[in-house]
Design a protein that fits this description.
Pfam families: Glyco_transf_52. By secondary structure, this protein is of the alpha/beta class. The protein is built from 16 helices and 12 strands. The protein has a 7-stranded parallel sheet.
């Protein structure tokens, strides 16, 4: 596709957002989209999108925000000029790329707003709002509208796409469009469904593998989020797996979870393809028991699913940034 013909831009930053975007868009809209990927999207998935670029968040330019601000201003004008006229969808973490541009925010997970409100990122946002008017204007001049305004809070975000209705004061005057992923999947053509399955390398054998075990364990990226050590996370999941019996378990890793569970739990089945749990749920995959510490993905299987929420037995400080503390709280928000 000629970049000058690009009508859309997608900045997914996670496989969930990428899945959401693919489901809500027509095949023509997808074909006319240019994707900005980072390491958060696995390489085997990135390679499925020829109309894309890779942003290395660890390169020289990203080591200093002042340097990054200047670099991206030049880079956009030189190589990505199409972005100024495109409809932009996705996440808003790349403040330098989005500077001065309107966008449509897509939720990062089904309950991202509630998770965010209990995170350090939200506390930093609230602190920024207490700055003097002069200081805020200076930051805005240097870094643009999206700096310290993530999760759709920038004044440049016009529309918020979520999988369920909500009401948040920091999204006042923004349009909220609800897209039920199951409905988007059911409404997709056979060709589009095959396309999406191809993006994630999902086939019939994978679905048979998933159906062969009674219990699915959904891991989370506690190590990557600085909540515990690698050893602590392994031991935590060892305790959980022993409760159900290793031979009854299939382990579905979080896309950012870098643990090698095959070595530690050889009798369990391991499903390591980088596809959001929500995608499997809308395809009708089910289990006798869904096990998690406190991942909202467990709720993808619906209100009647048998869910064991181990976070209720754990230290609140350890898991508060990762999701809801109790299953009851999660259901009240996500299944209302």
């Amino acid at each position: 596709m000629n970049k000058s013909k690009t009508s859309r831009v997608c900045i997914p930053c996670s496989t969930y957002v990428l899945t959401f975007y693919l489901l809500m868009s027509s095949q023509k809209e997808i074909d006319n989209t240019f994707f900005f990927f980072a390491h958060t999207i696995p390489e085997n998935i990135r390679n499925k999108f020829p109309n894309s670029t890779f942003i290395d968040l660890k390169d020289f330019w990203h080591k200093n925000k002042y340097v990054l601000a200047l670099y991206t201003l030049v880079k956009r004008k030189k190589d990505w000029a199409f972005i100024f006229d495109a409809d932009i969808y996705g996440l808003d973490f790349y403040w330098d790329l989005l500077r001065g541009l309107k966008m449509n925010y897509i939720e990062d997970c089904p309950n991202v707003l509630d998770i965010w409100e209990n995170s350090n990122l939200y506390r930093e946002y609230k602190e920024f709002e207490t700055y003097s008017l002069l200081k805020k204007r200076l930051k805005h001049l240097l870094f643009g509208d999206y700096y310290q305004h993530p999760v759709g809070t920038s004044s440049m975000v016009t529309t918020i796409y979520t999988s369920s209705p909500y009401n948040k004061p920091y999204h006042k005057n923004k349009k909220n469009i609800v897209k039920r992923l199951s409905e988007e999947w059911e409404g997709s053509s056979k060709e589009k469904k095959q396309y999406i399955l191809g993006v994630f390398d999902l086939n019939k054998e994978d679905l048979q593998k998933l159906a062969s075990r009674k219990v699915i364990l959904l891991t989370q990226a506690f190590v990557e989020d600085g909540k515990m050590s690698d050893k602590e996370q392994i031991e935590m999941y060892r305790t959980i797996i022993e409760h159900y019996g290793e031979k009854n378990i299939i382990i579905k890793k979080h896309p950012r979870d870098g643990r090698n569970y095959e070595k530690e739990f050889p009798q369990a089945l391991h499903f390591n393809k980088n596809i959001p749990m929500q995608m499997l749920a809308v395809m009708g995959v089910s289990f006798e028991c869904v096990v998690t510490v406190n991942s909202s993905s467990a709720l993808s299987f619906g209100a009647e699913a048998n869910i064991d929420w181990w976070g209720e037995q754990m230290d609140e400080e350890l898991i508060c940034d990762e999701g809801f503390l109790t299953l009851k709280e999660a259901k009240q928000v996500l299944l209302h």
